[in-house]
Amino acid sequence: MNEKACLPRITLGCLGGTVSMQAGLPGTGVTPQLGGDELLAGMPQLGALADISTVTLCLLPSASLSFRILLDVLAWARGEVERGAQAVVLTQGTDTLEESAYFLDLLWPCDVPLVMTGAMRPASQPGNDGPANLLAAVQVALAAKSQGRGVLVVLNDQIHLAAQVRKTASLSIAAFESPGWGPEGSVVEGQVIFRGASVPRKVLPLPKHCEHRVALLDACLDADSALLQAIPTLGYEGLVVAGFGAGHVSTAWSQALARIAKDMPVIVATRTGCGPTARATYGFVGAEIDLQSKGMHMAGRLCPRKCRILLWLLIGLDDQAALPGWLAH
Ligand code: GLU
Questions:
Q1: Which of 19, 21, 90, 91 has most ligand 1 atoms within 8 Å of its beta carbon, as the pocket-test mutant?
Q2: Is 18 annotated as catalytic?
Q3: Digit-coded pLDDT (tens) for 172-195
Q4: What's the pTM?
């Protein structure tokens, strides 16, 4: 009997990134070159675990991925599940992995795991982490306990939730963390261990339109408000501010934001990288009580970049009214 027929069916979609990178010519910088078949060929052990088919969806540095590409990736991954895949694994660059994982997680309606991974060292570099990350991602994808958890990000033998994960180091192998939350699980000697059971998920329908734009600006010391004031004139339909500390801005920004919040949804998040925004602690102009009274939404635990994705999807559904419920989720 065909041995493959007994194995679970997994599909591997490749988008590019460092995991696929090597130098074209000696002495030149690395660029994405290895597609799905080449990645799989570098990891022959995977053939004993699953019947894996591969598709090279694109070969891009992750800085050049887009919401449009991710919607195509989502459609492809859903199609693979309909065609019988028991899990889907995606490889992409790590630079924007925290954003694409959350984007796909908000729209992933299946119990079947969608597992994302990448690498910090290019495929051509000694000690590259791509093969080990791919192996761990496939092990997580195959585990029954991974069902119903949405999009999982697997790197460095850790499993992270899409809503929590952040890239917190530029070049270290241990570049991913879930600050203030911790990894959701780990892979130890090939065993997939989660720290708790899966919890019910909220998923969004597909956006009805995609041409709108949401801006993201960082609060910083002594910033003028010229860029802020220009936001409505530039055609943006939503704004996220990465605020100081617990979600704070200057007096001048508070005034400018109050005007903008009359015309579009404004979310104020924290630029600190860890912890929630406050709701009812600080009373100065530019702090959370003032900002909420002027119509702004506090982000809670959601980081500024993920806030932008949530807001973009809700505007695409004409459902900005759902924003407070999602931020409280
Ligand atoms: N360090 C990044 C990576 O892991 C650079 C390139 C990219 O994000 O595509 O893939």
A1: 21
A2: yes
A3: 999 999 999 999 999 999 999 999
A4: 0.97
